[in-house]
Predict the structure.
Amino acid sequence: MYTTLKPDRNRQRTVVFYGRVSTEHEAQISALENQLQWYDDQAKQHNNWNVIDKYIDEVVLSISLDTFYSNKNYAARKI
């Protein structure tokens, strides 16, 4: 016999936000701001979330994805 456990949606959670855009065009920067605002709004609605860090990742499309993913020194920027 199998028992299905219900997840405790109210348990304390440690959360890290990660926002990403793929160009430096103004519309994409605005999209990044919208992503971060959405995350902040979600955190306000979830009292059990403990936000410990926020990161952003801005990828410029002028480089190839192979170059991007092979760069071992690449890291998202902490904000």
Remarks:
- The mean pLDDT is 78.
